[in-house]
Amino acid sequence: MKDKKxxxxxxxxxxxxxxxxxxxxxxxxxxxxxGYNLNVFAYEGAVNLPFSKQSKHPNAVHGxxxxxxxxxxxKDWVASLIQTAKKHxxxxxxxxxxxxxxxxxxxxxxxxxxxxxxxxxxxxAQQSDNTLIVGTR
Amino acid sequence: xxxxxxxxxxxRCTIEEQDDPxxxxxxxxxxxxxxxxxLLCGNAVNYAVKGQDASxxxxxxxxxxxxxxxxxxxxxxxxxxxxxxxxSEDTAARGIxxxxxxxxxxxxxxxxxxxxxxxxxxxWHW
Lengths: 137, 126
What we know:
The complex is a heterodimer.
Chain A lengths: L5 E6 L8 H14 L3 E6 L23 H4 L4 H14 L3 E7 H7 L8 E4 L1 H10 L2 E5 L3
Parallel strand pairs in A: 1-2, 1-5, 2-3, 3-4
Chain B lengths: L1 E6 L6 H4 L3 H11 L3 E6 L17 E2 L2 E2 L6 H10 L4 E4 H6 L12 E3 L4 H5 L4 E4 L1
Parallel strand pairs in B: 1-2, 1-7, 2-5, 5-6
Antiparallel strand pairs in B: 3-4
């Protein structure tokens, strides 16, 4: 694809407490389906998004066991976004801020997500068509 | 590439991190060769006020030894030749006078924003 875009996103929020992350995932999904090359720099709590030890649970209020509830896990969404990008001829590269990982003990990330530094964000931004920072509020 | 860091989310996790993450990443990326300036707006204009003291926090027996020094962190940005601006409307709304601001901080009006923004390749809003 001659006009393939490269977009960089920086996310700052962890899973579950707010809606910004889901909004970013919607944008990533849309861009992945267009075959764009995508970079995600996870900063602060966002390093927990691809944490591999997330697990599903039953939900008594819903009357569901764990299988019926099929609770959404951000790590699965990240994995699916990586696969979707690949399927459509693009790529999704994910870097967790290493110091943020250390602070949170979030060392176990799913495949496709690696450790990096703010220097990676700057390098990506220089190589991208545009960069979207999604700070926390 | 030149980027303007627009920071308006203030005093969020500054105790735990002992700094502000948007200010911190500005220092870190500058160290990696980034060309950045900073515009403080909203409550974040207070980062540019001299003489802040967040010391004294104690939870149980744990005393915080390295409290955040936001004014010092902003002064260090200026020391690295990063232009630091604050919206004058936002300082005025919070009763912050020019004399209270760190030396080197430039007060700009929100009406100047389009002109200022046009000098940058990208705007990153934290």
